[in-house]
Design brief:
The structure is a single chain. This protein is 73% helix and 4% strand. The protein is mainly α. The protein has one domain (4-136, 158-260). The strands form two sheets. Strands 1-2 form a two-stranded antiparallel sheet. β3 and β4 form a beta hairpin. α2 (45-70) runs antiparallel to α8 (239-251) and α5 (142-160) packs antiparallel against α10. It holds the Pfam family TerC. It comes from Sphingopyxis bauzanensis.
Length: 331
């Protein structure tokens, strides 16, 4: 059998590398849904942390493989993208928690929403990264627009601070309630349910709050992708590194959510740290030009990014230690 097709170049890398990555992702999704969470149930914090550790370990292991296969610069770019995307995912957890709270989604069905949300993310990120790759390859100046956007976004995040998004006034929710049949009560794990229409009495399909929560989770990811996709392109323009670091960081979001949702208040200073990271990543392109460098050193980029995020996490845990004790004692 001729396996020469596996070495065909696709988006700058041999086809076998893309197939290996896709196979790992499919295997993880089947393992997650088909074995670990075949039945709807609540995920405890201990299980959440164990699964999160597994996903983070796999993501880092893939980064080591990238380092070995493609060289130190590609490896460091992957790890930088993975760290940035993982941190953005932590910020996304806060919004998802608000969405689940607004729609009163029972804990045992939250994993179902997150699983289907992740499938949507994989497709949406592929489309957005594909468009980004095409733009950057055709118009190199687009990178400067991405960079300026990141700097502006970071400054805006610092300015807004901890202001919560208003889920209830979201125009998409109001549109769905005006244009479609929507039921206010949950119907188990169903996204849609057939009920008599209150005006005609005929059986028609209704959206459940679980489906509306799924739609809002997908929209939230699109909004976060507007930050994360330019961020990774400011780190590297290699489509393989861009996509794999994004997806590996996002894959563990479902598992991580259940641990972080219970202790999100402990990460008070993570958002300012993330804002500074976006400003730094956006500034790198302009700094490299000013210094006459072809590109900003990957090792320095990884070191600075990790130091900023680690400082934000550590400072948050120190400053909120008293609130955790009060939370544990007072309930």
């Amino acid at each position: 059998m001729d396996f020469a097709f596996l070495f065909i170049d696709w988006l700058g890398k041999p086809l076998w590398m893309w197939l290996a990555f896709i196979s790992i992702v499919i295997a993880l999704l089947v393992f997650d849904l088909g074995i670990l969470h075949r039945d709807n149930r609540e995920i405890e914090v201990r299980e959440s942390l164990a699964l999160s550790s597994m996903y983070i370990g796999l993501g880092l292991a893939f980064g080591v493989w990238v380092w070995w296969q493609l060289g130190p610069e590609s490896g460091m770019n992957y790890l930088t993208g993975f760290v940035v995307e993982k941190t953005l995912a932590l910020d996304n957890v806060f919004v998802i928690a608000l969405i689940f709270s607004f729609f009163a989604v029972p804990r045992k069905y939250q994993h179902r929403v997150l699983f289907w949300g992740i499938l949507g993310v994989i497709v949406l990120r592929a489309i957005m990264i594909g468009l980004g790759t095409t733009l950057v390859s055709q118009f190199s100046w687009v990178l400067y627009i991405f960079a300026a956007f990141l700097v502006i976004t970071g400054i805006k995040m610092l300015w807004i601070g901890d202001k919560e998004p208003e889920i209830g006034n979201n125009p998409l929710i109001n549109f769905m309630r005006r244009r479609f049949n929507v039921t206010d009560e949950h119907h188990g794990q169903d996204f849609f349910v057939k009920k008599p229409h209150p005006a005609t009495g005929k059986l028609v399909w209704f959206m459940t709050p679980l489906f509306m929560a799924l739609v809002m989770v997908e929209i939230a990811d699109v909004i976060f992708a507007v930050d994360s996709v330019p961020a990774i392109f400011a780190i590297t323009t290699d489509p393989f590194i861009v996509y794999t670091s994004n997806i590996f960081a996002i894959l563990g979001l479902r598992a991580l959510y259940f641990a972080l949702a219970a202790m999100i208040h402990r990460f008070k200073y993570l958002k300012p740290a993330l804002a500074i990271v976006l400003i730094f990543i956006g500034s790198k392109i302009f700094i490299a030009d000013l210094l006459g460098l072809e590109k900003f050193p990957a090792a320095l980029s990884l070191g600075v990014t990790f130091a900023i995020i680690a400082s934000g996490v550590i400072w948050s845990l120190i400053k909120t230690r008293g609130s955790q004790e009060a939370h544990s004692n007072g309930g």
